[in-house]
Amino acid sequence: MEKTELFAYLRGKRLGVLGTLSRDNEPQGALVGYAVTSDLEILFDTVRTSRKYGNMIANRRVSFTVGNTVGKGDERTVQYEGIAEELAGESLARFQPVYFATWTDGVDRIQWPGITWFVIRPLWIRYSDFNIPLTKEWRF
User: Are 24 and 102 in contact (CB under 8 A)?
Assistant: First the structure.
């Protein structure tokens, strides 16, 4: 398993679970639609009134999980830990085309009140394929 294969797996999926901690240190999960860059950065949008937004502003360390949801017996997953950053200005302009290539309806959400975009930069990723079995980890 190489990083290019990991990228292809992540790019082939569209939904993942974002894990954050509340201000009271309680774990919270949210299913989000995401896109991925060739540098294995996760991109997604949210609104500023969401729980995950407040959690990420208070604590930028997050987790992200992607799993196979189609096909019985296909047991592949990615566990991902990283640092979330709210995008603005030049960085937003650079990342939005990647996001919109995956989520074309994302362009319509630009008009939503309080909409914002985040990137998660990886610190640690584990890919597991329990069909083979195979486990591979990367540290960044």
Answer: no
Give me the number of domains the chain comprises: 1
pLDDT in tens, 26-70: 999 999 999 999 999 999 999 999 999 999 999 999 999 999 766
Q: Which two tokens stand for residue 63?
A: 């987790």
pLDDT of residue 92: 96
Q: Which residues contact 26 (CB under 8 A, 6 or more apart)?
A: none
Find residue 45's DSSP bridge partners.
117
Cα gap 57→102, rounded to integer Å: 25
CATH number of the domain to which 67 belongs? 2.30.110.10
For 9, residues 6+ apart whose C-beta sits below 8 A from its C-beta are: 66, 76, 78, 127
Rounded Cα gap, residues 125 and 88, in angstroms = 26
Segments forming the whole domain that contains residue 59: 3-139
Residue pair 82/48 in contact (Cβ under 8 Å)? The answer is no
CB 117 within 8 A of CB 60: no
